[in-house]
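fold-stage: in
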Amino acid sequence: MGEVASEQKKTGQRLLTIISFLLAMPLAAMLLLHPALMLDDQGHYSHSAIMLIMVGISGGFIYGVGFIPRFWLWKWLFHPIVSFPLMLWGYYTWLFT
């Protein structure tokens, strides 16, 4: 019984790492290849928003490749609970503004 629950947990975690990596990849590519897509209505960058979105992208890559930071602050900052909303904010900024 314990082995089945452990395998389901590993499968769920593996799926979450794949989703994390796949969410981070297009945002990073867009920021590298065509950063003008992140301009606001007035044609300016919101540097604080882009900084937070880049933290989310970093967290997506860090969790997506399976790296687990040792220091508690980095572990918290790059966790999917923090990075997924930041990446979703990036997708919203990219696609709807």
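fold-stage: in (second)
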Amino acid sequence: MANPPTTSRATTLPAVKRRKLSDDHHSLLPPLPDHVAHLCLSLISPTTMFSVCRSWRRLLYSSTFPPFRSLYTLSLPTAGGGHHQTLKLSSFDPISSKWITVDPPPAPPLPSLHRLSVRHPSFVSRNLPVQSVSVAGKLVLVAANSGRLVPAFSHPIVFDPLSDSWSSCPPLSAPRRWCAAGASRGTVVVASGIASHYTQTVAHSVEKWVLRKTEDFDRKRRISDGNWEKMRSLRNAKLCREAIDAVGWRGKLCMVNVKGDYAKEGFVYDVDSDEWVAMAEGMLGGWRGPAAAMEEETLYVVDESRGVLKRYDESVDGWSEVMADERLKGAEHIAAGGGRVCVLCEKKDVGILVVDVVATPPQIWVVEIPAGEQILAVHVLPRMCRPELRPPVGSESK
């Protein structure tokens, strides 16, 4: 026979009051000191930590705790016809399954995200690009078009998720659009493009910028340290005909000059040696859709006509199938990080497909897109801190 229940003062307290006492407790894992508790809790999955208590949730979103990865999107409202619209940056928190809208950069002094255009009467059958790259855990907005078909940004701007702040890049030699842009190992590279009008100087130019650490940013002026370095000029201007995503992979930038499942040319740029070479035949042959690299080590591509996610094997110069899914057909944008590949397809009712490529077999699920949003790009970056869970000012420095 079971022992009769015993009554203690703790069990007689209302549940709400018990939760409040637990959440207000300063010690994360009594009687351990917090720095030891940090080490222990870092071994627990973020989902579990989020569900236990508020003090653990605060720690999960603090600057002192290793950040988990989140999905980010750049979008415009579907209403308005794509002319003179406001670009929006959003973050999807995979732990709480909530979308968070990022506050826009303060303008001035930073470039405004208003009055951008993705459609224009001169380009009936295509959208105008908004180009962005992720580098060292930050997002860089590189180029876009204004309604007058001139560069929308006087200079690139940077968003840092961990500090929830915007800052300004140094200016390029000339503002541009329709360029090749990518990042590798903390360095952003912009090649070719068109300024307010076509010039051979801009079309043949290559510039790189090394992203400094957070402490190197001038917070008062919101300008980052360092300048763009001019590299060896291109031999031709093939890269200014399209907005090109240059994929960072093992210290190099890989790119093709045409999007979609069409005949194309491939180029590989070595960031350190400043040398361009033709893409390997096998790599180029399987590059039949948007591509991304996981931690700049493993290259993935979606064959948009067949709906197949593939992985590149340099040793055999070939691609192997990871998984096939009808929903991957018509893939438009892709991002990779934290063992996940995120794919946005042309069927807007599908949402963003997330593939866990670490699992065996690979697992796939869907993140629903907020209603009324046209997604222009997807990125995988460190999580932001949800406003209601941010620690009190000064608490993290204690």
